[in-house]
Amino acid sequence: MNDSSPLTDVWMIHRDLSQAPDFPIPPGYTMRHYREGDAETWVRIQRACADDLSFITAEHFHEDMPGDAAHLAERVLFLVDPSGQDIGTIVAWNDSKFDGRDIGRIHWVAIVAEAQGHGLSKPMMSAACNVLRTLNYTEAYLETHTSLIPALNLYLEFGFRPAPRSDGVRAAWQAVAPRLKFPINV
User: Fold this and answer.
1) What's the pLDDT score for residue 53?
2) Are 172 and 9 in contact (CB under 8 A)?
3) Which residues fall within 8 angstroms of residue 132, CB to CB, at 6 or more apart?
4) How far apart (Å, rounded) are the C-alpha atoms in residues 163 and 161?
5) pTM of the model
6) Domain ranges of the chain
7) Interatomic CA distance for residues 152 and 47, integer angstroms
8) Per residue in 46-77, pLDDT tens?
9) What are 9's strand-pairing partners?
10) Shortest CA distance to 137 belongs to which of 22, 16, 4?
11) Which residue(s) pair with 142 in the sheet?
12) Which among 114, 129, 153 is positioned nearest to 31, based on CA atoms?
């Protein structure tokens, strides 16, 4: 998913999750919830989506997403291909990091490299937004990078908008804007 854009950390916000599109899971694919021991599955998928993620470990999973198995099962999702292999993951989390209020968070979106580019992120995003709505979240944010043009386009299509927190980040959004499929206002 990486390209030649500079790497700038950016945040995006969705102010009304009821307006997020609902993409169905393609025939043969399924979404499943976290099961005990799936931290290793999550690590495998994260590492398989890009070359530079060798730092991700099961300990990283548990530090970043604390909670018991029931809490994780509610929020950590996996995309399963027709052969039964877990090929994608997405987390419907929440925290108060964005603006001090407890809001939803789309977190750790990943699809193994060989399955990227086939529109599978859309049903995963729909599933995560549905989880957040079920948990009574009306807003959500996410963190990403300006080098991830396909991801930025996905998030924009879902109704997430840039939330620049500095002039430098605003400039990064402006630099990448011509390469996006959707107009942005920064």
Assistant:
1) 80
2) no
3) 17, 92, 94, 104, 106, 140
4) 6
5) 0.93
6) 9-179
7) 20
8) 999 877 788 899 999 999 999 899 999 999 99
9) 145
10) 16
11) 12
12) 129
The pLDDT value recorded for residue 4 is 52
Which residues of the chain carry a pLDDT beneath 50? 1-3
Tokens of 83: 């052969």
What's the CA gap between 84 and 32, in Å, rounded? 11
CA–CA dist 133, 60 (Å, integer) = 26
Cα 88-5-122 angle, rounded to 5 deg: 30
List phi, psi (to 5°) of 28. 95, -25
Q: How far apart are alpha carbons 160 and 4 in whole angstroms?
A: 23
Domain 9-179 listed as CATH 3.40.630.30: yes
CA distance linking residue 8 with residue 168, whole number of Å:
9
Contact 163, 13 (CB under 8 A): yes
